[in-house]
Amino acid sequence: MALEQNQSTDYYYEENEMNDTHDYSQYEVICIKEEVRQFAKVFLPTFFTIAFIIGLAGNSVVVAIYAYYKKQRTKTDVYILNLAVADLLLLFTLPFWAVNAVHGWILGKVMCKVTSAVYTVNFVSGMQFLACISIDRYWAVTKAPSQSGAGRPCWVICCCVWMAAILLSIPQLMFYTVNHTTRCTPIFPHYLGTSLKASIQMLEICIGFVVPFLVMGVCYFITARTLIKTPNIKKSRPLKVLLTVVVVFIVTQLPYNIVKFCQAIDTIYSLITSCAMSKRIDVAIQVTESIALFHSCLNPVLYVFVGASFKNYVMKVAKKYGSWRRQRRNVEEIPFDSEGPTEPTSSFTI
Q1: How far apart are CA 294 and CA 287, in angstroms?
Q2: Using one digit for the tens of pLDDT, what is the confidence trace for 258-314?
Q3: Does CATH number 3.40.30.10 belong to domain 2-293?
Q4: Within its chain, how far is the Cα of 231 from the centroid?
Q5: CA separation for the pair 288, 80 (Å, rounded)
Q6: What's the pLDDT at 52?
Q7: Alpha-carbon gap, residue 303 to 318, rounded angstroms
Q8: Which InterPro entries match (predicted)?
Q9: Domain coordinates of the chain in residue numbers?
Q10: Could you tell me which residues are beta bridge partners of residue 30?
Q11: b/e map of 98-137 (b: 16 or more CB within 10 Å)?
Q12: How far apart are alpha carbons 285 and 291 in whole angstroms?
């Protein structure tokens, strides 16, 4: 998890500190980041609690509706279902990171590796499923829509997305561990050094942001242009939805990836030689990554709840639940010593 990578003590080199006989340019200066840790102890648990509650409620409804009530699923439905599962699994890691920020990692090295890997798998796969949804919407608007349902290719694509995300989580399984300050953080071998760390960061940026952003941008741009040129349809609402989806993605994901890119560049070229600047970068990565995580809470609203079809399913479920409650209440009101026959209660039909 990126926001845990730089909360320990860092070392910097003073430059141009020379007298007539000695070169002090290689002496290390310790950068104590206690302020960063204190900020994390307050900010991260608060933000993660809010995100966990909101995201759990919204994504649980999506999974329940698509898994148990909506039997005929389109490709978009399958992608949204997988997206909701990825968001839920991602949200389930937040309580661990909240405790880690306050008390340190108390669950051992194995759980540190597993939790970090699960976080990466679901964060990356969530971004990829957003790209899949944009492609399917593009085909639905610009091409003749298929009536055959999801089909095998759709599930193959989902499996490929999950496999790619799992492969990208291998560094978390290998290098995450509990350090001397009892924090779950990546520790890279000295002989691998900066090049491996920077390569992993760049790969995460490309797969987790650049590729989905380019796919979404191109697909939604063509989709919007097609909608504008199509006569006799109401264009305002679909265009507003497309614009909202793109703007929310940029606002939540771009700042985090910019800061992450700066970290990768600094890993290679050691541009940050100031302790104060290093602390600001650490706080920035905590804030921006938390904002990026909040996208998992917004996905149900952006991709599901705005659709009339899903609203109809929610209403059907609500009516079934209301009918079940009324039926149960009627049964409970019947005396236990009644010997007469009872009238059958209404079924779950709407």
Answers
A1: 11
A2: 999 999 998 888 888 889 898 999 999 999 999 999 999 999 888 776 665 666 666
A3: no
A4: 37
A5: 25
A6: 95
A7: 20
A8: ACKR4, CCR1-9-like, Chemokine_rcpt, GPCR_Rhodpsn, GPCR_Rhodpsn_7TM
A9: 2-293
A10: 11
A11: bbbbeeebeeeeeebbbbbbbbbbbbbbbbbbbbbbbbbb
A12: 10
Copy the structure tokens of residue 54.
């909101």
- Distance of alpha carbon 64 from alpha carbon 175, whole angstroms: 36
141: which 2 tokens? Answer: 């608007």
If 0-12 CB within 10 Å is exposed, 13-18 middle and 19+ buried, where does residue 342 land? exposed
- pLDDT (tens digit, 9 = 90+) per residue, 166-206? 999 999 999 999 987 788 988 888 777 677 888 888 999 99
21: enclosing H helix or E strand: none
pLDDT score at 214: 95
Tokens 């209404």, residue? 346
pLDDT 10s digits, 222-244: 988 888 887 766 767 778 888 88
What is the three-class DSSP state of 187? Answer: coil
Region of residue 108 (phi > 0: left; psi between -120 and 50: alpha; otherwise: beta): left
Say if residues 86 and 135 touch (Cβ distance below 8 Å): no
Separation between Cα atoms, residue 253 and residue 104, nearest integer Å = 27
Residue 178 CA to residue 184 CA, distance in Å, equals 5
Q: Which two tokens stand for residue 302?
A: 């952006």
CA 55 vs. chain centroid, Å, equals 10
Determine the Cα–Cα distance for residues 279 and 265; give it in Å rounded to an integer: 16
Q: CA-CA distance, 216 to 132, in Å (whole number)? A: 8
Helix-helix angle 94-103:34-64, to 10 degrees: 160
Question: In the chain, what is the straight-line distance between the N-terminal and C-terminal CA atoms, in Å?
Answer: 47
Query: pLDDT value at position 215?
Result: 95
Q: How many CB atoms lie within 10 A of CB 307?
A: 13
